[in-house]
Design goal:
Order of helices and strands: HHHHHHHHHHHH
Number of helices: 12
Largest sheet: none
CATH topology of one domain: Hypothetical protein af1432
Shape: globular
Helix content: 55-70%
CATH superfamily of one domain: Hypothetical protein af1432
Bound molecules: fe (ii) ion
Oligomer: single chain
Amino acid sequence: MFMTKINEVLPYDYEVLLQKVHAKLTDSRYNHVLRVADTAEALAQQYSADPVKARIAGIVHDYAKQFPDEAFKQVIMSQKLAPELLGYNNGIWHGVVGTYFIKRDLRIFDTAILSAVAKHTTADVEMSALDQIIFIADYIEPNRNFPGIDAARKAAQKSLAIGVAFELQHTLRYLVTQGAKIYPKTIISYNTWREYLEN
Ligand SMILES: [Fe+2]
């Protein structure tokens, strides 16, 4: 299997990346990021994706999670991103808009990694293997504990598509019970991925 070398996607050492990411996150969020990277790397090995890109995407997926709302709003406006984004919140922004900060601060420009980060908060009708791996790894990393986690982990062991479909169904169900506003792309994604649901 083709594997990227780490210096093809990172302009500095891996340990420097860890320091840069840790500097922007609480310890507990940083530890989540490390677990997502481990989980993503393992899924990449299992499903013949690129484990190096999976690890790096896992490390950076929540880079902007603790940035202030004002920073996201400024980027949405200055970069002329879809204005509808202003009607959502950090839950959507830290992926879709977070890629801006990853490019700016971390100097990571690999499109496969940036795509996986962007889609981890929204999903998409089209998702590469790496997109699916980060979406799932974030949901099932070893410290996750919620009703349905065992079924989510089993779904991901059957196939990435089954894992994505399971996660979309359960996440949407949860958001609706919370009365949350749903990002339209996530609904369209559910309509696409639901063919993989097993029930
Ligand atoms: Fe996230």
